[in-house]
Amino acid sequence: MNINFSMEESVKKRYSVRNYQEQEVELDKRKAIETFVNSMDNPFEKKVNFHFLDNGETKSQEKLGTYGVIKGAKQYIGTTINLEPLSLEALGYELEVVILYLAHLGLGTCWLGGTFNRKGFAKAMDIGESEIFPIITPYGYAATKKHIKEIAMRKMIQADHRKEWSQLFFKNDFHNPLTKEEARELAFPLEMVRLGPSASNKQPWRILINDNACHFYEYKEPGYSERFSYDIQRVDMGIAAAHFDLSVKEKGIKGHFVTAGEPKIELPENLEYAFSWVRVHKDI
């Protein structure tokens, strides 16, 4: 996977676009996107399948829908997995890298997990019934103005708001918030995580620095994932992993993800261990 864009620029440029111009994405850009997608991998070593759809070429009898959330989009990317441990995190990781690449190309996107007609899109994308189909994103050029429903949704979820450092990042235990000064060179990767997108802007990730590792935990919002057959917030944890991983690599900080590094500490209510990133040959 070859990343040739600035993490900070792409993270700050990316926002959820729900209203698109009529202009289609140029063929050369679409080919570049497919090539980039084909290069994807993830640190969890789980297979993520990508599916492309040009809505302009879709047969009229196929019912596609996003319940009024998306307007004007012609191109979509869908993702499917086999449901197993860490596959949702892998999906979140890979699709977020793709979305950051699209932002680098000047294209808008929008994570859709609950507001799209799965049956219609599955048929149009030729997705089998045995595949888990959690997420799609439209992509294209953002319209100049946001539509009324988009404005209302952004206001409802406080789309431009992010939690403070003291709510997300900790040192040694969850009673001790981590400061940017204490994080030192990891302050940039952590800030990129803080700015990441998440379902309904819940920001479920919590990161604990302990010894020579960063431990990722999921704050499981009570009742939030009940309408799914899986924990949709695990996708958000994959997004956090992508932001962190791309950022440390950009800064030349060496380390790797592990899934069995949980420290033995007391956890606050509704917090669940997800995975860890272990730094190589240097104390944090």
Report on this structure:
The protein has 284 residues and is of the alpha+beta class. It folds into two domains: 147 residues, 3-Layer(aba) Sandwich (NADH Oxidase), CATH 3.40.109.10; 115 residues, 3-Layer(aba) Sandwich (NADH Oxidase), CATH 3.40.109. The chain contains nine helices and nine strands. The strands form two sheets. It has a five-stranded mixed β-sheet with strand order 5-6-7-9-8. A four-stranded antiparallel β-sheet has the order 1-2-4-3, with helices on both faces. A hairpin with a 2-residue loop joins strand 6 and strand 7. Helix 1 packs across helix 3 and helix 3 packs across helix 9. The two termini are 27 Å apart.
Can I get a quick summary?
With 284 residues, the chain is α+β, with helices and mostly antiparallel strands. It has nine helices and nine strands.
What's the helix and strand layout?
Elements: H1 7-13, H2 27-38, E1 49-54, E2 75-81, H3 87-104, E3 108-109, H4 118-124, E4 132-140, H5 148-156, H6 165-168, E5 169-171, H7 180-183, H8 187-194, E6 205-210, E7 213-219, H9 233-250, E8 255-258, E9 271-279
Parallel strand pairs: 5-6
Antiparallel strand pairs: 1-2, 2-4, 3-4, 6-7, 7-9, 8-9
